[in-house]
Design brief:
- This protein is an alpha+beta fold.
- A two-stranded antiparallel sheet has the order 1-2. Strands 3-6 form a two-stranded antiparallel ribbon.
- It is rod-shaped.
Length: 91
């Protein structure tokens, strides 16, 4: 006898066929198209270029130009909203 849970697992596996391995953020696993293509963590280093008389160039490194951690994903499944809210609380 096949259980309903076994059938759901098979259907879920077929739906994820050909996708990447799951990624886990905290306690929330992300599958397939839920996995973000790009993660932006912070900003870039700022550089300031000064030209002096005679053609000498000085490059000052000013440190991090901060940006927020950001990413995009589409949550799927019956508990998609709860999983999205759990991740929002972590950030």
């Amino acid at each position: 006898m096949v259980s309903l849970l076994s059938i759901e697992n098979v259907i879920g596996s077929i739906g994820r066929y050909g996708t990447t391995a799951p990624v886990t953020l905290g306690s929330v696993p992300l599958y397939g198209m839920e996995i973000p293509d790009v993660l932006t963590n912070g900003g870039q280093q700022r550089l300031e270029v000064h030209w002096l008389p005679g053609g000498t160039k000085i490059v000052d490194r000013l440190g991090n130009d901060p940006a927020r951690f950001s990413w995009n994903a589409r949550f799927t499944g019956p508990n998609a909203m709860a999983r999205a809210q759990l991740l929002a609380q972590m950030l």
